[in-house]
Amino acid sequence: MQISPAGGGGDSQSHPGKEQQAAGVGILLQIMMLVLSFVLGHVLRRHRFYYLPEASASLLIGLIVGALANISNTETSIRAWFNFHEEFFFLFLLPPIIFQSGFSLSPKPFFSNFGAIVTFSILGTFIASVVTGVLVYLGGLIYLTYRLPFVECLMFGALISATDPVTVLSIFQELGIDTNLYALVFGESVLNDAMAISLYRTMSSLKSHAPGQNFFMVVFRFLETFVGSLSAGVGVGFISALISFSAGLDIDNLQNLECCLFVLFPYFSYMLAEGLGLTGIVSILFTGIVMKHYTYSNLSENSQRFVSAFFHLISSLAETFVFIYMGFDIAMEQHSWSHVGFIFFSIIFIGVARAANVFSCAYLVNLVRPAPRQIPVKHQKALWYIGLRGAMAFALALQSVHDLPEGHGQTIFTATTAIVVLTVLLIGGSTGTVLETLQVVGDDHDGPLSESLDGNNGYVAPSYNEDATSGNRLKMKLKEFHKSTASFTALDRNYLTPFFTSQNGDDEEEHGKIDYCQNVT
What we know:
Layout: H1 9-14, H2 16-46, H3 54-70, H4 75-80, H5 86-103, H6 108-112, H7 114-141, H8 150-160, H9 166-175, H10 179-208, H11 215-246, H12 255-275, H13 280-293, H14 301-332, H15 340-367, H16 377-385, H17 391-403, H18 408-437, H19 473-500, H20 505-520
Helix pairs in contact: 2-3, 2-14, 3-14, 3-18, 5-13, 5-14, 5-17, 7-8, 7-10, 7-15, 8-10, 9-18, 10-11, 11-12, 11-13, 12-13, 12-14, 15-16, 15-18, 17-18
């Protein structure tokens, strides 16, 4: 299924030489845009120009080139080489991006805030999806927006709830934002991708197969998709750790073998989940988390440097290409711009849903934390504001063109693309100013990201020694959940890490600190 109809295909097929020339021009243009994006991003970062982040620059490059192509004689050849199947995104572009996200999610600050991250990414994403879907549906009923069936509104709410703050994370590092806020933003964006795609697949399956299914069947289908994909990813990750540990691959002359296996296991996880009818993106995400935490420790130092650089490289290329393509697509394609009201009100509804997500989840998290370690209101406002949309929302919207007939999918695709572009350009460009206005830059208890690992500042590692002055059952249940996460940390340190890696838990913790410091500098 092609999203962009290629023009002039018959003439190219009758002249193989011209077709080959068109291919060369199209590929050359793509390479030139990638080179320009990376160079421009480096210049902007070097001069600390926060008003145009790298992702925004890539979008603008795509927009400019697409606009120029529209008025030039090379439009047909360029358009032909920007025609991608939805499978291209899910098989080649998204897997390295998602794996790299999970691969980066292992240092201490993320696991210290694991309970809060899970609350925001699982419960919060569900709240945001439902609120967005319901508001869009109600907007259609009162003729504020383009009217969609309720299930399709929930599908739109699920896909648009996937956040992608890659645009602002580099700004966080430059401004010296609190480590805990950084961990919450990054951790939520990684795990909520898995939640969003599972919700989307569940709603899509509900629409396609049995509209009359009851609520329990919908819940069961979601759990089957999410938990099954998670289990497949974790299982493959542990298998890779066990193989690397048992085979003793941390030997210099086996560097080629261990690097090849490390690169192949993520795609094995992805294809296994897809073959089982599950979600490969969710599977490869948790494979990345497990492999970084266990398998990575069994590699030799040279192999560790190679795989870190390799996955960072291909994920950067893929993500930059996605943003370029989004800008190019806006300028080149015929979108459903007749439904501008749907786009406008969707942005408002998304803001409301994001507020319901952030402030309700922060309230639940703060119920179980002592006052000095609660999530401050200014951090909650920052979390609400920087909920950008990116590659995952775009890819799911691209798939919706195939999943939803009668032009509904094209309307959702147009709205999602416009929302992604607007949030990346406007919110991404204003993030630095907003963070300074909220006074979350250079808090007294905050140090540089690389230094704050050694302290117990902010709201890392909440304690459980305070007296239970309230009989609130919800508060006690949440306390038990946080204690269970602490118990898992002890289980990991005392049993899992020694069993699957060649070092003990204390060494792993120190290794995580060093590795995280290297990543943020």
